[in-house]
Amino acid sequence: MVAIDSSTLSVAGVSQRFDGRQVLDAVDLDVPAGRVVGLLGPNGAGKTTLMRIIFGVLEPDVGEIRWNGRAATADDRRRWGYMPQERGLYQEMRILDHLVWLARLYGVGRVEARERATDLLERLGLADRMRDPIRELSGGMAQRVQLAAAMVHGPELLVLDEPFAGLDPGAIEFLTSVIVDHVQDGGHLVFSSHQLDLVEHLCETIVMLYEGRVVLDGNVRDLKRSSAERFLRVDDAWLDGTAARVSSKNAAGSRIALEAGVDATVVLDRVRAHADVFDFGVEAPTLSEMFLAVTRPLAAAAADAPEVTS
Amino acid sequence: MSGRATRLVIEREVRESARRKGVWAMVILTFLGASGVMLVPSLLPDDPDSHTLMLVGDDDIGLTEALEASTDPELELSNGTDRTAALDAVTEGDADIAVVLGDEPTLLVEDEGSDLVNLVAGIVADRVATERLTDLGIDPSDVQVAFADAVPAIEPVDVEREGRQASAFVITLVLYILTVVLTSQVAAGVAVEKSNRVSEVLLAIVPPRALLFGKVIGVGCVGLITLLAGVTPVIIRLATGGDLPAGLGRTLIASSAWFVGGLALYLIMAGSLGALVARQEEAGAVVLPLTMFLVVGYLITVSAADSTLGAVLAYVPLLSPMIEPYRVAIGAGSPAEYATSLALLIAAVVVAGRVGAAMFRRAIVQTGRRIRWRDLRSSR
User: Fold this and answer.
1) ipTM of the complex
2) In chain A, which ranges are continuous DSSP H helix?
3) From chain A, which residues contact B within 8 Å (Cβ)?
C-alpha cells in the first residue's frame, strides 16, 4: 500500500455488485501527486467500473472516494480530468468549440477556455485541425482530442481509462510523454491498462485487479525486487537436465525460469556449450508473469470449487 | 453549478442545431407556410364592387329604378337592342346578367346559382309582383309589410366557426409534426450520447438532471424558434394593420400554452426513454408509444374534437396538447374545462420531470444493452 501524503486521491474499500455479480470487492487505491499509478488487470477485472466510481458516474455499494483526506465532492471532481476508454465526444462538433464548451462546463470562463483550448491543441499538434468536426479525424488524432478534453481545464488529477488501446508506437510514445510531463509538474495520474507489459516501464506504482479484487499492489521496483522468481533471457534455450524450464520462446529468444537457488551462470554455461550467445540477462519477472503467478492459484481454486446450485 | 451546466447544455443544443440544414429547412418551411396562409386570401381576386346589367325591352315595371337603388353591389345598367345582343353581351363578358323584359321577364346568366343572380332575380320578381298586385287593386306596400312581419328573424350564431376550424386544423398539423420531429430528436440525441460514451464524460462534470433538462430545453427552444417563425407573418400582418383570418389569434394563443406544456411533457419522456437503449438505432422503437399517442391525439382532433370522446380525452395530458387548442378554436369547451386540462398538463410535466430525471439517472450509466424496467427498479 502506498503511503498517503497530504494531496492524494484515495479509493477506500470500494465494493460494487451488478446483477448479483461482485464486480469490485473492497478495493483500495491511492494516487499521490507526482507519481504514475497503473490500474492493471485483464478485461473484465473491474477497472472501468472503478474509474466510473472515482468520477461519481456510479455510486459504490460500499466504500468511498477521498480527496486530500476527506470525501470527494462534485467541486473536487471538476478539478479532475477523465478520459474514458471509448471515444466520448460529440462527433459533429468542431474540435475547438468542443474543448471550449467542456472547459466552460468545468467552470473556466469563456475567454480563458478559448485560450487554454487553443494552446493545448497547438501543444498536441492539432492547431491546423481545430475548426474541423471531430468525425473527420483519424483514430490517433481523435485520441489526442480526447486527451485534450480531459486536460483543457488544467486538472490536478488525470484518470485515463485504457489510453494506449489501439494506438501505434508513435502515438504511444507521445501519450507517454504527456503522462510523464503531467506527473513531473506535480499532478496526479492514474491510468488503466490490460496490456501489462506495454505499460510496465511507465508505472511507478501499480494496483492489479483480478475479478474485482486487488491481487497485487505497490511500487513496481519493490515488487520485482521482493519476488523470488528470476529469469534468464538468452538467444536460445538448451537446458539438458538443468534445474530450469523454458517460460516462453519467440523469435527474439528464450526466457528461462530459474528454480530457487539455481545459479544463472551455470544455466548460461550449459546453453553456451551448445550455441553461441550474443545477448543474455538475468531478470525479475515481468508484470504479466507476476500477475499470472498470483492469479493461477486463484483460477485453479475456483475451478476446483464444487458447483453451487440454488 | 447545476444551473450553469444546464445553461451550457442548452447553449450547445441550440448552437449545434443551428448548424444543421434540416433544422433550417423546418424553420423556413414553417415561415413560408404561415406566410402563405396570411397572403393567399389577399392574393385571391375579390368580388367586384359593381356588376354590369343589360336591360332589353320596355321597362314598364320600374325595374331600372329598383336596380339602380342597389348599393351592395352596385349595378351598372345598359340597354340592349334585342335578346340576341343580350345573349352575345353575357357570353362575351360585356354584361354579367341580361334581363329580357316582357310578360314573363327572363334572366340570361352564366352562373345561375350566384349571389348576383339571386339578387337580380329577387328585384325583378319584386317589381313584377308589385305590378300584378296593383293591377288586382291591392296596395303592394301592405303586402310588403305583411311579408316583412312574416319573415323570421335570422341571428348568426358563429359566423367565424368555419374560419377558426381551418386555422385550428393548420395549427394542429404544424404542432403535431413539430412534436413528432423534436421527440425523435431528443430520444436519438440521448441514445447517441449514451452509445458513444459522451454521457460518461459529461456525467463526471454535470449532474444527470442538468444533462436531461438541458437537452429537453435546448431542443424545445428549437421548437419554439420554429413556432416563432410560423407566428412572425401573423405579427407582421397585425403590425401593418392587416386583418387575421377568422379565429387565428385566439387559436394561436391557446395553441402556444398547450404546445409549450405538451412539448415539455413529450421531450422529457423521450429523453428518459432514450436513456434506456444501448444504440441509436433503437431510439425510434423506444419512443414508439409516444408517437402513437401523438398520432391518436391528432386523429381524434381532426375527426372528433367536438364530440363527447374529444371532451373526455381533452383532460388526458398526453392527448390534450393536440385536442385542446382545436376545442378552444371552435369554442367546444368551457373555461373550466380549459383551465382543468391545462392544470393537469402542467401537473403531468412536473411528475414526468421528477420520474424522468430519476429514470434517466439510473439508465444513462447502464451501458452495453437495452435496459429493462426491473433493472431500473433494482438499481439505485
Assistant:
1) 0.77
2) 47-54, 74-77, 95-105, 110-123, 139-151, 169-184, 196-199, 220-226, 264-272, 287-304
3) 52, 55-59, 74-75, 77-78, 80, 82, 84-93, 97, 101-102, 104-107, 149
